[in-house]
Amino acid sequence: MIQDPLFYLFAIPAVLITGISKGGFGGGLGLLAVPMMAFVISPVQAAAIMLPILCFMDIFGVLRFRLYASWHHLSILLPSALAGIVIGTFSFHYLNDAQIKLMIGVIALAFVANYLRGKQQVPTGNPLWRGGFWGMIGGFTSFGVHAGGAPLNIYLLPLKLEKSVFVGTTVIFFTTVNYTKLIPYFWLGQFTEDNLLTALVLAPLVPLGVYMGSYLHHRMDDRWFYRSCYLLLSLAGCKLMFDGLNALL
Questions:
Q1: C-alpha neighbours within 13 Å on the C-beta side of residue 216
Q2: Within a 10 A sphere around the Cβ of 144, how many other Cβ atoms?
Q3: Tens digits of per-residue pLDDT, 35-63?
Q4: Which helix (H) or strand (E) holds 72?
């Protein structure tokens, strides 16, 4: 397993923030984990380490929020998300580390920009096409770097769903997507002994992070949690985009 202390300096807060986010804030900031770990290891390896951890987290989220999910929106999002996973699987070997870092950086900054837009208008037009498009993008980005929260939130946030309904919908979405991703990750050889052992070492942080998120769900002002996380995400996104562009050029 990974023994570099510097890795755990980034990985431990990354897992805790992801657990807090999944435990009561919708899970979108799971995007933060891979960029933080990618400071020390390959983003491909970071994604492989995080997937079993995310699947473990999803169990807690489903138990708490499954009754609140909007199945109407999930029926639009999930079929296209599965198509996005298939596209991600067969394009996996065509992307190198520099391209993946650039992609993560762009997605992270786009996610932050969407947050900074502030109040959004309820979208008009055909929800089937909007949900289908963002669901497919969510499945594709989730497959590669667990960044499905960005496109999913672009679709869901303007709908102004009640907080628990929003969390429940994202929980079911990510649970379905993450457990589906286990199949291609095994097929592509991502679950090496080192990656699985590292994930096992980090796994005890999962209940702590999810419990903290559940506790804070009704007690903490969302704005302060999200502002601090978005600041970290902005810094990580800028660094990864710079590294990706530098390597490509």
A1: 22
A2: 24
A3: 888 888 988 899 999 999 999 988 988 88
A4: helix 71-91
